Amino acid sequence: MELHTGTVITPYLLDADRYVLFIATAGQEFEQFQHEVKSSGDILREFLLDSLGSAIAEAVVREVCSKVESHVLPLGYGVSHPYSPGYCGWHVTQQQLLFSLLPEQPCGVRLSESSLMSPIKSVSGVIAVGERIVKRKYGCELCGKMDCYKNRNKLKKMIPMNVSKWIKDIIASDKSLSMPIMTHPGIELLGKKVLDAVIDGEVHFQAIRALNERFPKAMACTAIMDLTVEAEAFGAQLCMSEHEVPTVTGRLLTSFEDVDALQIPSLDNARVPQYLKANALAAAGINKPVFAGCIGPYSLAGRLFDMTEIMMAIYTEPQTATLLLEKCTEFLLSYCQAIKATGVAGVVMAEPAAGLLSDEDCFQYSSLYVKQIIEAVQDDSFAVILHNCGNTGHCTPAMLKTGAKGYHFGNKADMVEALKACPADVLVMGNLDPVGLFKMASPEIVARQTEELLNRTSSYPNFVISSGCDTPPEIPFTNIEAFYQGVERYNNECGR
């Protein structure tokens, strides 16, 4: 059996006479305590415990190293630093081989199919022991990998990703690229529930990472498209279940007086910090662009005032609708600024309710407010992709007036007509049915419809094939594989 530790770590292990394998963990009890604190809503204690758990696990590793040295140094052997899967080019899937050499569930630590340990605050690895082993410089000093998340943290302030150039390179590519809006299969890879991911930023990040490792061909990763986070921050009541995304229940606002009294919430409210945490971890820990998600101002207003009522209010109470939209926009602008600060490449802003409006009303009650946010946050290092799955083509002109760097269309739109309407220098994305195709169809049909859409859009190099909206839970993995196989087969046989 061989452990493939990668080109960075292997030279530090090659001359060993023996190897020490280890598992260190903060333990199940600590993780249970973390869950209790999270449930209490004490964000500060939760943050401190997160850091403390990592420190405990690392302290255990140091104690292991100290014990090893006390036994072998007197015998004339040298001892290396500890090295772990997931770092410096040693792929995290090698955890499976490492664990196979240890007793079952060592120290109570379990390993998932996607090679993630539980409890989360656990560390595994190897220490080299031998006469020719010398403890050399460690950490980022030994590693030249620019895609390591620790180096990325240092480099982001100096070398932010040029998203504008990335988009130009995509358009200039001779291959068709893909970016489905998809996170739920990653949750399932972890053996977790939807509820786990929408309330815990670390689980959310791990789901994004697990999906990327299982299906690495997407040009970028996306976070969960949860359109209740912002409404909950304002005080809306939610229905939360274990296996479905949360939904808003009831009506928070019923009158102009309610809207006038509505306070702009803090970014510390509700689950906003957990989503920012997931974005930051994904931006630092995944070696490709990551796009966060947020709701659009008109769709947020509908969740607070009731969707039917806000559609009536723009005609019967325009002052009320306008005031609410202004408050929603103010909050979303600050939220998008915070998202940008996490280091992600951009945000997919979902504005599906605007698709229920005419083009004129879409411009007046959605695009004008979206444009304010875009003008404040979008630049060469951060892109806004505007998603409107309610648009059948009738309000595409209003969408384009926002100035986004990308537009994402639902499966009800004619993709060729959408491409005709959009400028050639922006990304245009869509629009395979997330339910009828990805979830319900056979792999053969998924692959065929993927290739058919790529053939229909072959004249447009700015097209990126995607799902028409966020794919739901319980998508068959065979269908995801069929989607990527369809893209690959098209590129091999046709290309642009």
Distance separating the two termini = 43 Å
Largest sheet: 7 strands, parallel
Unreliable stretches = 144-158
- Biggest sheet: strands side by side, in what order? 6-9-10-11-12-13-14
Descriptive overview:
By secondary structure, the chain is an alpha/beta fold. It is built from 20 helices and 14 strands. The protein has helices spanning 6-9, 28-40, 43-72, 95-100, 149-155, 163-172, 184-189, 194-199, 201-214, 229-234, 256-261, 272-285, 297-305, 307-316, 318-341, 359-377, 396-400, 415-421, 443-456, 477-493; strands at residues 18-25, 78-79, 110-111, 117-118, 122-130, 221-222, 237-239, 247-249, 290-295, 346-350, 383-388, 406-409, 427-432, 463-467. A seven-stranded parallel β-sheet has the order 6-9-10-11-12-13-14. Strand 11 (383-388), helix 17 (396-400) and strand 12 form a beta-alpha-beta unit. Helix 2 (28-40) packs antiparallel against helix 3. The longest helix is centred in the N-terminal third of the chain and has 30 residues, at 43-72. The protein is globular and about 85 Å long. The two termini are 43 Å apart. Mean pLDDT is 90; it is low at 144-158.
